[in-house]
Amino acid sequence: MSPDHRLGISPWFKIVDPAELREAVMHLSRPNITAAGGIIEARINTLFAGDEEQRSELLGHLASLTPRPHGRK
């Protein structure tokens, strides 16, 4: 079972290991991101606060999955 199916919204708060968060984020798919996007972004910012390179990579991946409102590029 993929992290998409294992993790709902609230379990994201339970992830305290940066490696586990990284794996879960990299396995996300677009349909599963809308409701949890802000929570996931907060966890990335918290757990990767001292590692700008990985933080930027994960936030970029998250942004690529996040639906954008019409008219925005």
Keywords:
mainly alpha
Give a verbal description of the structure.
With about 70 residues, the protein is mainly alpha-helical. It contains four helices and no strands. It has one domain (about 5-65). Helix content is about 50%, strand content about 0%. α2 packs antiparallel against α3 and α3 (about 35-45) packs antiparallel against α4. The protein is globular.
Q: Report the sheet with the most strands, covering strand number, pairing sense and barrel closure.
A: none
The whole-number mean of residue pLDDT values reads: 76
**Beta fraction of the residues?**
under 5%
**Overall spatial form:** globular
Number of strands: 0
| Helix and strand pattern | HHHH
Radius of gyration: 12 Å
Which runs of at least 5 residues are low in confidence (pLDDT < 50)?
none
Which structural class fits the helix and strand makeup? mainly alpha
Distance between the termini: 33 Å
How many DSSP H or I helices? Answer: 4
Helix coverage percent:
40-55%
When the domains are counted, the total is: 1
